[in-house]
Amino acid sequence: MDVRKTYKLYVGGEFVRSESGRAYRPDGSVNVPRGSRKDLRDAVRAARSAVGGWSARTAMNRGQILYRAAEMLDGRRSQFVDVLGGGRASAREVEQAVEALVWYAGWTDKLAQVTGNTNPVAGPYFNFTIPEPTGVVGIVAPEEPALAGLVRRIAPALCGGNAVVVLVPESHPLPGLTLAEVLATSDLPGGVVNVLAGYRKELLPWLAAHMDVNAIDVAGCTPAEVASIEKAAADNVKRVVKRPADEMSPHLITAFMEMKTVWHPIGV
Q: CATH number of the domain that 261 lies in?
């Protein structure tokens, strides 16, 4: 007997049905949970509760967990190839997603040295610039590539110590919802990554306007959506990150971080 899979949202480290009980069929056959404003609020609350513990972990430990996620994704390679439609292009996309996780895992304990600085000052003290996580980051995943594009946005935010709330592609949600199963088994603390599916027109305005979201990545948005997000984000001084959807760069990590200046007396 063929048992059809039930897809769920991933919020606070648990797989849940949409609060409204609604679903939609992006491909005409598979039911996908249709997240609501309540689901979005729950996801942001979970991320806010988790970000302190995640950012307090050592850089090495965050790197180990990201590398573990890469291992788990690689172990389910055939499943993801099928979810993506099969063929060589799908296999390459899974490989790119694994490589992105490994690459950013290697950056966790190098970020402070590369982006930080010792500043010359006139006085008997040191002045350091060090990176700190922004906090809760909303991510609008690009429609294509549905898996690699999503991983390339989640990994740098996690690398810097942030917690994320992800809106998976509306027309291709299955790779993102399946990726949540990988993250749930990769030692990542509950609430650090929260994955929502649904209609973007319903969820995006509330993500952009939410007072407890510190930054939003608009890699998967249309120009019209970006304009509306920027308007909503201006009301609560939210950072809007606009960088190429396929970018892999340490600059993408720092796009989700704040630079903090610390003074320290010499000899103490």
A: 3.40.605.10
